[in-house]
Structure formats: structure tokens, C-alpha cells
Specification:
This protein has 151 residues and is α+β, with helices and mostly antiparallel strands. Helices cover 20% and strands 26% of the residues.
């Protein structure tokens, strides 16, 4: 993967898994900066707010990324990082013969979860779908579920 800035490249290297298996295809991920240099992830320690900032840097301008929220998963618990993605479906061809069209279909948050680390510097990363549905039918929209943004 090639990023146009060193900070974005290092942020992506911090989150992306170095190896991902898609059916019978194996992908090794190497991240380079604008000078085509291989970059390393940001080193630990990083707290939840620093990780949230790196998500902003890594995923800004990605149409599926909405925001990042830092808050406890449970009342009184430690802060965790919730990258929030649009409530959209991503579909692409793969070798899934159990699907009539041989496609993979998943919500955006789960697709990002498949290729990104679920923990950074011992902080859990909980990939989430937006609480606001992209629907014209307001009866189906979740009301008053917008997460509190502490970032």
C-alpha cells in the first residue's frame, strides 16, 4: 500500500494486518510513503486518544469512514477505540462457491475489521457501524443513538 504522506503511511502500518487471507488468496501488506520507503508502525505506548488520532490520519478521505469515538465499552471501564464506518454494504468477487454470484458481501465495518488489527498497544479496537442509517424511511432510523465523541 502506498500513502502520500509519511504520517498517513505510518498510521496505516500501525493498523493494517501484515498478512491477510482472502479465500485462496494470500496478501502480504507492505506500506510505503510518498518517497517509496517502507515504513514501520508507530511504537507503543499509545493511549486510546493517540490511537483515535491515528485512525483520523489513516482513514481521512475514505468514503466508508465516518468518525472515531473514544469511550469506555462498559461503565467504569477503560477507554476503547470505536472507528465508525458508514452503514453500507461492500461486495466484490471472490472464490466463495457457497454464494450464487461467487461474491463476498459484508458491511463496511466488518470489511475493515478483516484487514486491520483488533488491538493496538493493548487498546481494543471495536469496529462499528454508524448509528445513523442511510435510509429515506425515517421510521427505521435509530433515534438518539449518536455516540458521545470524546476525541
Amino acid at each position: 500500500m502506498h500513502a502520500l504522506s509519511n504520517e498517513k503511511a505510518r498510521a496505516l502500518a500501525t493498523f493494517l494486518k501484515s498478512f491477510v487471507q482472502f479465500g485462496n488468496v494470500s496478501v502480504t501488506v507492505i506500506v510505503t510513503n510518498n518517497e517509496n520507503e517502507i515504513v514501520n508502525p508507530f511504537p507503543c505506548p499509545l493511549d486510546a486518544f493517540e490511537i483515535a488520532h491515528l485512525f483520523q490520519v489513516a482513514l481521512e478521505n475514505n468514503p466508508y469512514f465516518e468518525q472515531v469515538v473514544v469511550q469506555p465499552q462498559f461503565p467504569g471501564g477503560p477507554n476503547v477505540v470505536f472507528p465508525v464506518f458508514t452503514a453500507e454494504v461492500i461486495q466484490f468477487f471472490n472464490d466463495d462457491i457457497s454464494n450464487l454470484c461467487q461474491t463476498f458481501t459484508g458491511v463496511a465495518a466488518n470489511v475493515f475489521r478483516d484487514v486491520m488489527n483488533d488491538e493496538v498497544c493493548d487498546s481494543p479496537i471495536l469496529f462499528s457501524t454508524s448509528c445513523v442509517m442511510n435510509s429515506e424511511n425515517t421510521q427505521l432510523q435509530n433515534k438518539d443513538l449518536t455516540p458521545k465523541l470524546f476525541y
